[in-house]
Amino acid sequence: MKGIEKPFTSETIDQEPESVQIDQILAVKRRGARLSVTFEDQRYCVTALQTVESEVFDITDLREYFRDSLAHLEYALRSVGRQQARLAELHQHYLLTLQEKTNRRLRLLTIISAIFMPRNKPLKGGKLCLISLKRPC
User: Fold this and answer.
1) Vertex 75, ends 71 and 79: CA angle to 5°?
2) Looking at the predicted structure, is the pLDDT value of residue 18 above 60?
3) 129 three-class SS
4) Residue, of 48 and 8, whose pLDDT is higher
5) Residue 1 has what pLDDT?
6) First to last CA, the chain
């Protein structure tokens, strides 16, 4: 049984980068994209319904309702767009945090390898010789 996932914010990523998985961010981005597509389809339908002039499909009494619905859908689309932009920023921030963590590890490994790796010394002929305890160069 999967536990309840803790919601993530930019503060969560800053304070506990290991607690947020990239899958969480990408899943929310996918949901936002689906929501955006749905709202765009609904806006198209409402706009098309407003332009219909027919005796069978008379919406003169509902024009105000359709106008309000269209305004709400446009607001929802703008809101989803802002959320998608924010999720893109969070994704970028997450990647930068991972990159910084990797850079710190590489810095440490570089220092450790510089301390413990054997050193080379040049020979008279210009060739390099690996310093060895068993046989001299």
Assistant:
1) 170
2) yes
3) strand
4) 48
5) 39
6) 64
Distance from chain centroid for Cα 41: 25
Per-residue pLDDT, 95: 87
Distance, in Å, from the CA atom of 89 to the CA atom of 10, rounded to the nearest integer, reads 9
Q: Indicate the burial class of 73 (C-beta count within 10 angstroms; 0-12, 13-18, 19 or more).
A: buried
Domain spans, the chain: 10-130
Quick one: how far is CA 106 from the chain centroid?
A: 24
Select from 70, 83, 92, 71 the least CA-distant residue to 32: 83
Ramachandran bin of 9, using left for φ above 0, alpha for ψ from -120 to 50, beta for the remaining angles: beta
How many whole angstroms separate alpha carbon 130 and alpha carbon 28? 55
Q: How confident is the model at residue 121 (pLDDT cuts 50, 70, 90)?
A: low
> Which of 40, 43, 37 is closest to 66 using CA atoms?
43
Residue for token digits 């305890």?
133
Which residue type is seen at 65? Y
What's the residue count for the chain? 137
